[in-house]
Amino acid sequence: MSARDSSLYRIFEGETRIKRATFLAVIVATLAGVAALTAKTSRHATAQEAAPIFVKKIPAGYRDWKVVSVAHEAGGLNDIRAVLGNDIAIKAYRAGKLPFPEGAIVGRIAWTYVSSEENNKSFGREQSFVAGSPTESYLQFMVKDSKKYAATGGWGYASFDKEGKPTDEAAMKACFPCHQAIKDRDFVFTKYTP
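User: That's the sequence. What structure does it adopt?
Assistant: Structure tokens below.
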């Protein structure tokens, strides 16, 4: 090998070392990026899994909300109920807007229903029923917050007894699976009754 060939070999060998070092640096940077992205995604997934799906506080002023509809539920529930909406929910209901906007809250108050002796005397027969005592799940709410409640269709669920104590989480876990049957109505059972 001549001196000229030897210097060319060293130049090519040097370029190969630089190329190898550059290639190695790119691989290390790529692996570091993948590791960081995986860790971030994992933390995000864990945060979503741990995100609450239950509302723990009764919304202020719910008794002043407007009526969406009323219903009588038979079977195991056997109650009468009023379904209410905050201003955001009522506006969406009236406009027929689905999905409901962020901040919409739909509430439900339920009572046992009892025969009204006083009313029945006036009618001359047994036909009148009125609200009795609050049911075990006296108050229920659905709160729209698509980020906070992403795991449950964008809705947080709440249920409280007549003393305002939240229903236990084990019972609350049945809410979203039940509401999935009406996903096309943004998971809300009650339709607006003008």
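The first helix runs from residue 3 to 50.
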